[in-house]
Specification:
- This protein has 490 residues and is α/β, with parallel strands linked by helices.
- It has 4 domains: 116 residues, Tetrapyrrole methylase, N-terminal domain (Cobalt-precorrin-4 Transmethylase, domain 1, 3-Layer(aba) Sandwich); 98 residues, Methyltransferase, Cobalt-precorrin-4 Transmethylase, Domain 2 (2-Layer Sandwich); 90 residues, Helix Hairpins (Orthogonal Bundle), CATH 1.10.287; 46 residues.
- 54% of the residues lie in helices and 9% in strands.
- It has 20 helices and 10 strands.
- The longest helix has 25 residues.
Length: 490
């Protein structure tokens, strides 16, 4: 069993190749290169260093991931025949996926891997652009960049911008956070005499440069801070709860915050009902504050922090959407909901349908809780087949309520009224209508019509408390045919 030594060839100039790397290459019996497309390779040939390259893999495989995996597998197989050297551009530990795949695979196969570090393109880039990474720097892979990963508050170096297609994908990711005319630096062959190009261009033009090749990277300067982000909100809450913070905020605990959490949730719903986007933005912020408040309290107690809250919901969304993030499939929204419920039962260790019913929070509004109870019961097949059967049940419960009232059984009226409401909720569920929302709309309609009859009464020189019920009923019927406008008082 042989040993694999991974050597970094540096950024491209002969002067940047370390003495240890040169000595290792000259003594090696077998040398493999990830690619011949590197300025140092010509120098190796001139010194009579023989090698085999993996360039053909790039043409034979469909993705870079497959190329690198095949390289690692080939190297491990070759190592079974004896020692070898694997040479890569720059520093093996910097932006070299094949190196890390090789380390993992070699460990599994029991093969020793040594590393001869080299200078990476990063050191040259720091020097050329006057960047001190200690002041904050983000390094991203151009082959896998996502807009959400970009931190505009730090300088960003994007590696492996191999061609104009990748440059275009990088540009689109950056334009999620930066304006089209934002200045960026395109660096090709940093430190290689006669080939180096460093050019400042507007972001939208970076994929139009003809010289972009396998030695290209991009530097995006940090943007001037504008506005606030979630980290600012977390810090503000820490200050408010700190020793020099606000007395009121410091006094709060989970119990005292309960009414505020409920109030803010309802105010979000109210903003949605009003279709007021500006108000909705404000109320969502107030609701988010409650989440941050509770997370800060938990952090102070050593239980969890806001990061764990985010981590938990991300994991849950991925876990409960195997038809999106896994290998399963859902034909439609009903199928997706079935997957969600199945995942939820598995997570909570719920065995049987009764346990699922008992897990529904008792603190939910009764209409909402009864809707959820009947929804989960229906998953077990405990449901009517036809809407006519559901309506018949409503009529049956109404009849029973009338009967106990006629018989003077006052103690049973509440029970029968509850049964009637439960049956009505089931009717709403069967028709896919949320009873809470339906009742809210009816309440708003009542207020609007009541405002109408009071307004009409005033026109007649009367107040409602001076009118008979028949007179008010006539105005009520008139309100049903009145066309209300958006600005009518509710």
């Amino acid at each position: 069993m042989g040993r694999i030594t991974v050597v970094g060839l540096g950024p491209g100039r002969w002067e940047h190749l370390t003495l240890e790397a040169l000595e290792t290459l000259e003594k090696a019996q077998r040398v493999f290169l990830r690619t011949e497309k590197h300025p140092m390779v010509e120098e190796l040939r001139a010194r009579g260093i023989a090698y085999n390259s993996f360039d053909r893999f790039y043409h034979e495989e469909s993705t870079f991931e497959k190329v690198y995996a095949r390289i690692a597998e080939t190297l491990v197989r070759e190592a079974e025949k004896g020692d070898l050297v694997y040479a890569v551009p720059g520093n093996p530990a910097v932006a070299e996926t094949s190196y890390y795949l090789l380390l993992d695979l070699a460990k599994q196969r029991g093969i020793e891997v040594g590393t001869v570090a080299g200078m990476s393109f990063l050191e040259i880039t720091y020097q050329r652009l006057g960047i001190d990474p200690v002041k904050g720097l983000q390094v991203l892979d151009g082959l896998a960049i996502k807009g959400r990963e970009v931190d505009t508050g730090k300088g960003i170096i994007i590696t492996q911008v191999y061609d104009r297609l990748i440059a275009s994908e990088v540009k689109l990711a950056l334009m999620e956070k930066f304006p089209a005319h934002y200045p960026v630096w395109v660096i090709r062959a940093a430190g290689v005499e006669g080939r180096e190009i460093i050019e400042k261009v507007p972001l939208y033009k970076m994929d139009r440069l003809s010289y972009i090749d396998y030695l290209t990277s991009v530097y995006v300067p940090a943007a001037q801070r504008q506005g606030y982000d979630i980290n600012d909100l977390l810090e503000i809450m820490r200050v408010l709860r700190g020793e020099k913070g606000c007395p009121w905020d410091r006094e709060q605990d989970r119990q005292s915050l309960k009414p505020y959490l409920l109030e803010e949730a309802y105010e979000v719903l109210d903003a949605i009902e009003k279709k007021d986007v500006g108000l909705l933005k404000e109320e969502l912020g107030d609701l988010l504050l409650q989440v941050v408040f509770h997370a800060q309290i938990a952090d102070e107690e050593g239980e969890f922090d806001f990061g764990k809250v985010v981590e938990g919901i991300c994991e849950k969304l991925i876990r409960r959407h195997p038809h999106v993030f896994g290998g399963q499939r859902a034909r439609d929204s009903d199928g997706a909901l079935d997957r969600w419920e199945a995942s939820k039962r598995k997570e909570k260790g719920v065995r049987g349908y009764t346990a699922a019913l008992m897990n529904i929070p008792k603190t939910l509004p009764s209409l909402m809780r009864s809707y959820k109870v009947q929804q989960k019961a229906a998953l077990a097949g405990f449901d009517w087949d036809r809407i006519e059967d559901v309506m018949a049940k409503v009529k049956e419960e109404l009849s029973e309520l009338e009967e106990v009232y006629k018989n003077g059984e006052m103690s049973r009226i509440k029970e029968e009224l509850g049964d009637l409401l439960f049956a009505v909720v089931n009717l709403a569920r069967f028709e896919n209508i949320r009873p809470e929302l339906a009742l809210r709309e009816t309440v708003e309609k009542f207020i609007q019509r009541f405002a109408f009859i009071e307004k009409e009464a005033l026109k007649m020189g009367k107040t409602l408390d001076r009118m008979t019920l028949d007179q008010m009923e006539q105005l009520w019927q008139a309100s049903k045919v009145h066309k209300f406008h958006k600005n009518d008082k509710k």
